Amino acid sequence: MSWWMRAAAGVVAGGFGLAGAGLMAQVAAVPPATPPTAAEVQAAAKPTHDATWWKHAVVYEIYPRSFQDSNGDGVGDLNGITQRLDYLQKLGVDAIWIAPMFPSPQVDFGYDVSDYEAVDPQYGSLADMDRLIKEAQKRNIRICLDWVVNHTSDKHKWFEESASSRTNPKADWFVWNDGKPLDPNAPEYVKKAAHDGMMPPNNWESGFGGSAWEWVPARKQFYYHKFYIQQPDLNWRNPAVEKAMFDGMRFWMDRGVAGFRLDAVPTLFEDPQNRDEPVEAGTNQQGDPNLKGIYTDNLPEVHGVIRRMRQVVDSYPKTGFPGSRVLIGETYLPNTAELDQWYGGASQNELQLPMDMLIGFRGNQAKLNVPYLRRYLTEVETEVHGSQPLLVFDNHDNVRSHDRYGDGVHDAAIDRAIATMLLTSKATALMYYGEELGMVTTTPTRVEDVKDPIGITGWPKEKGRDGERTPMQWNASTDAGFSTAGKMWLPVPPDYTTVNVAGEEKDPASLLKWYEKLIALRRSVPALHDGGVVFVDTANPDVLSYVRTAPTGAKPVVVSMNLSAQPQTVKLDMSAAGVSGTKLRTLVTDVPALEKHDTTSDIELPPYGSLVAEVQ
Ligand code: NOJ
Question: How far is the CA of 511 from the CAs of 36, 418, 435, in angstroms?
Answer without folding.
Answer: 32, 11, 9
